[in-house]
Amino acid sequence: MSRSVEEISRGLEPTRPARPILPGERIHVIGAAGSAAAASLLLGQAAGASVSGCDSGAPSAYSLGAEAAGIPIVWQHDVGHVVGEGGRPLVDRIAVSKALTSVNPDQPELHAAHAAGILATSCQQLIADVAATFGGTLLAVAGTHGKSTTTGWLVHLLAEAGEDPSAFVGALLPAALAGAGAPAVVRLGRGGRLEHPFVVEADEYAGNFDPYQPTIGVLLNADWDHPDVFRDRDAVINTFEAWIRRFGPDATLVANAADPGVATLLPRLVDWPGRILATAVAPVADDAAALADELRRTIRSAAGPATALTAGYVDNPLSSRTRLTLHGLPGHHLESSVEISLIGRHNADDALGAAGAALVYGLEPAAVLAGLASFEGVGRRFELKGDVAGVVVIDDYGHHPTAIAATLAAVSLRYPGRRRWAVYEPLTFHRTAALLEAFADVLATADRVAIADIFAVRDPDTTIVSAADLARAVEKRGTPAIAPGSVEATADALLALVEPGDVVLVMGGGRSYVIAERLVAGLEARSR
């Protein structure tokens, strides 16, 4: 059963227009181990606030950067973080992840804040307020799949062109791109200088992206996900449309018109006052120019016909690179080709989204082409963790049937003819139950499957489905599947089963990275 945004956000103030953070504003962030929460700590500090955090779990790869920046984080919840003796307010605001309020809206710190008159917002509202504090052009990347890669790619394009953006990305940016000593979920540009852009990954879950009103927005795709919030794909499309209609004045939408969900949405925007740049990868490489003409002819907003950026693409498994032939670059009468290092059609879509936003921002086409070629990806997106004793181990964030299908296809392109293990830690019980058959269909296309215990995140009901249920559904389709238990037990089981020549694709949005790391360590120990 789906729940409303109001139910999931209970205890938090409604979304409002972003406003600058006051110098020295005291802000406490609850759920500090999450990516958006850790980002809000780092960005809040950079905006001049006095920040602190807490979490009932353990430090994560996301929170390490906040602790390294000297931000105090306590690894337990306590009302003493927000109020003192007699209920005296110790902070001016708390920011809370909706992953927490969706499970425990009666969180004690939240109640204490309300009693003391302390403002309570979402982490995304805090990030939007930081963007307002910094000023500059706000660019936001949305879609069911590919947000982190595209956002990281856009940050890379801007940085390589000398724009020095600030950013929040839901995955770890490489240290060099983050401008830090280690990978991080934020990049801190030169602060409040108005000419520098601010880039955010805009997540549709429970209105997370509502505080963002970008000048340039990217919509990659609109697929059905988050069944605890969205009843069906139409509900997802409606949410994206409502968000786009809140964009700032003179906004531009960069939209992947080749995606079925986005194609359904675009005709509804005929009265929208902003401009549309339609992107699409041509099904046949030579058809990019004709496709661009079709998009300009059939898509329009109140501002006039859409502009178009299209591409043909050819994967080269031997070099693990993809050649894009782009049509519609400003000032280029002929098509321009570039090789990117991220293989697969889905990465071609992401490249066009990032390139389109960068061109709308004002980057020169030559700089965009150079940045497309030099981007190496973000953390946990088809990330090679090891190639040990003939076994390749890849870590990926895929946690939806569409994303898993795309990533398995990329494995086949990069490692043709090798036995493929699909190792999946399902993310949330409600998603697994609602999409069980679709998950089984796509996982069964691998040669071997392992399902780790489901990572609950925000699920109040952990009884509706199990990892074993999914493994059985895969086996009914003729593919051997196991469900060993925890991520640690899954890694140990794989160690006894994998053989030289295997490619092990580990996927999931929770602690699945432990499977990849533990398996590589076991293979290395065994090969000594």
What would the keywords be for this entry?
single chain; 528 residues; Rossmann fold; UDP-N-acetylmuramoyl-L-alanine:D-glutamate ligase; Protein-Tyrosine Phosphatase, Chain A; 3 domains; 10-stranded mixed sheet; 6-stranded mixed sheet; 19 helices
State which percent range the strand residues make up.
15-25%
Query: What count of domains describes the coordinates?
Result: 3
Mean pLDDT: 93
Number of helices: 19
Biggest sheet strand order reads 8-7-9-6-10-11-12-15-16-17
Kindly provide the radius of gyration, computed on alpha-carbon positions and rounded to a whole number of angstroms: 23 Å
CATH architecture of the largest domain: 3-Layer(aba) Sandwich
How far is it from the N-terminal to the C-terminal residue, by CA?
51 Å
Label the overall shape.
globular
Strand segment count: 23
- Biggest sheet, open or closed, and with what strands and sense? 10 strands, mixed
CATH topology grouping of the largest domain: UDP-N-acetylmuramoyl-L-alanine:D-glutamate ligase
Helix content: 25-40%
In the CATH scheme, the class of the largest domain would be Alpha Beta
Low-confidence regions:
none
